């Protein structure tokens, strides 16, 4: 990539006062000056929550929205994780003005969601069983007390604004967090009073299935373990990526991300809950991590997680009117669960 001149300055001489920090290239120009190694020939790649730049050897992630501490917590977590949880290794991390960044060694492979359509049934099974194995290893890990306290601080405090809630966790629990988001829906174009009332009532009725102690005394969970955060290479799941949303919580909270965009679950959503035994992904995940499913009220628990995630999804920064397809999904969830466990 060739670096253009801006206002007569080369990129390597820029300061954050000289650029619009709302665009990715300007943010990259600032962070690049502070990296401990050369970072050349990089390309910008898709990401939901950060700016991500990659070259042949390295990955640079820049956090510019929400809870900026996410990447710094992830850096500490990655350094502490055991080898039984395959993950990227950290080269460096830091803070510049209102940005945080982390530089990682690039791991060979493809995102599982992007390669999924090309995999055979046996390879898909191996991938999901492998994901279950990795999650089991993560949940078996006893973290240093410093890591546990760090993760608890990030989720036990109720942020003061909608954007702060959205920028700090994927599933906004404890309930005080999702309640703040629901309050922000009042009067928003597209959100009917009736739907908002039904969602509040449903979350209130489900809230008791997950206790406060599970969110405080639980395990280290990834928090966003969907296929886009799993790396596949030469027939193996080689890494779990993006631990920025890691938190303390119950192990089954991982099911929200695993089920989030499963096409079989999506196709069945309007006709009522699909049995978990009819969803291959869940059958394979159970093979890799049977203990994940050994819970009472698992139907209701996943239903609560799904509802909380959907409320967060509709609360993304910058939204001033609500997407009709996402409102439809919320309406379905207000009526019933998407998956039913035996």
Order of helices and strands: HEEEHEEEHHHHHHHEEEEHHEHHHE
Total DSSP helices: 14
Main sheet summary:
5 strands, antiparallel
Secondary-structure arrangement, i.e. CATH architecture of the largest domain: Alpha-Beta Complex
Round the Cα radius of gyration to an integer and report it: 21 Å
| Count of extended strands | 12
CATH class of the largest domain: Alpha Beta
Percent of residues in helices comes to 40-55%
Please state how the strands of the largest beta sheet are arranged side by side.
Answer: 1-2-3-5-4
Please, what is the average pLDDT? 91
Query: How much β-strand is present in the residues?
Result: 5-15%
Q: What shape does the CA trace take?
A: globular
Going by CATH, the homologous superfamily of the largest domain would be Aminoglycoside phosphotransferase (APH), C-terminal lobe
The structure class reads alpha+beta
Oligomer state of the chains in this structure: single chain
**Count of folded domains:** 2
Uncertain runs are 1-20
């Amino acid at each position: 990539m060739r670096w253009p001149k801006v206002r007569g300055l080369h990129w390597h001489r820029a300061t954050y006062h000289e650029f619009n920090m709302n665009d990715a290239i300007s943010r990259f120009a600032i962070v690049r000056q502070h990296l401990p190694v050369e970072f050349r020939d990089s390309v910008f790649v898709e990401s939901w929550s950060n700016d991500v730049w990659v070259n042949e050897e390295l990955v640079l992630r820049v956090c510019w929205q929400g809870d900026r501490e996410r990447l710094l917590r992830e850096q500490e977590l990655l350094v502490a994780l055991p080898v039984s949880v395959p993950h990227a290794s950290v080269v460096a991390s830091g803070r510049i003005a209102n940005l945080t960044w982390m530089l990682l060694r690039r791991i060979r492979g493809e995102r599982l969601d992007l390669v999924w359509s090309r995999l055979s049934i046996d390879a898909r099974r191996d991938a999901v069983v492998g994901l279950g194995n990795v999650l089991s290893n993560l949940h078996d890990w006893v973290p240093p007390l410093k890591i546990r306290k760090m993760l608890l601080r990030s989720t036990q405090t109720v942020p003061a604004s909608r954007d702060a809630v959205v920028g700090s966790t994927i599933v906004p629990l404890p309930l005080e967090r999702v309640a703040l988001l629901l309050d922000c829906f009042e009067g928003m174009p597209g959100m009917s009073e009736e739907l908002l009332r039904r969602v509040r009532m449903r979350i209130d009725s489900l809230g008791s299935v997950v206790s406060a102690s599970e969110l405080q005394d639980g395990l280290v969970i990834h928090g966003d373990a969907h296929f886009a955060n799993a790396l596949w290479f030469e027939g193996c799941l080689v890494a779990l990526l993006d631990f920025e949303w890691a938190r303390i919580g119950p192990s089954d909270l991982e099911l929200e991300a695993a089920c989030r965009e499963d096409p079989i679950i999506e196709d069945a959503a309007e006709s009522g809950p699909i049995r978990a035994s009819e969803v291959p992904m869940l059958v394979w995940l159970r093979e890799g991590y049977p203990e994940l499913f050994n819970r009472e009220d698992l139907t209701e628990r996943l239903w609560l997680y799904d509802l909380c995630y959907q409320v967060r999804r509709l609360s993304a920064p910058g939204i001033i009117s609500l997407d009709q397809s996402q409102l439809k999904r919320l309406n379905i969830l207000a009526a019933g669960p998407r998956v039913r466990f035996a």
